[in-house]
């Protein structure tokens, strides 16, 4: 066998062996609910390399600005996209992302991940408990458009549309976590330790088929 061909085959086999050893990588892309720690539990469930790319207070618009560095540069096998709780903060117009733009941003994120060769899982935003939430945020902007739950459901519907239009797995945490209110911390937004585990379990079911588990 010619030396150059042999060298090429050795390099190819070495590359394939390294990739197999590395195994699948999952990047969890989101806000403070992601940052709170479900990716660590997800990694334990999947026995896979799971990266926590959550950032407190972030919207889809903010996420797009850090996506290359925090997500794509990691060369993920799967990206779990989980935004919405901050996008719908109508009481802070400097933060809020209108629902139509939220839908476009989710589509842009999904398209960029697919272009990079990663599979995508879309999550809907979880429930919000209005009593503690409105101790921190003004209620009037929500009341003007039909109330907090109506607003939240509009953002969840947008996430569902993105998943459906792009034939992506959907984890409907808005519906799933509503059945287990113990997931929620007293602030009405973030997960308890038990909630972190529940979120990881729900997401794991969508990710497993994508990484051959």
What secondary-structure arrangement, pairings included, does this model have?
Layout lengths: L2 H20 L2 E6 L1 H4 L2 H9 L2 E6 L5 H11 L7 E5 L16 H17 L3 E5 L6 H4 L6 H4 L4 H18 L4 E2 L1 H4 L16 H15 L6
Parallel strand pairs: 1-2, 1-3, 3-4, 4-5
Helix pairs in contact: 3-10, 4-5, 5-8
Give the terminus-to-terminus CA distance.
39 Å
The stretches of 5 or more residues where confidence is low (pLDDT under 50) are: 8-21
Number of helices: 10
> Helix coverage percent of residues?
40-55%
How large is the radius of gyration? 19 Å
Given the C-alpha coordinates, what overall shape results? Answer: globular
Number of strands: 5
Instruction: State the order of secondary-structure elements, H for helix, E for strand.
Output: HEHHEHEHEHHHEHH
Mean pLDDT across all amino acids? 91
Query: What structural class do you assign from the helix and strand content?
Result: alpha/beta
**Order of the strands making up the biggest sheet:** 2-1-3-4-5
Described by strand count, sense and barrel closure, the largest sheet is: 5 strands, parallel
Strand content: 5-15%
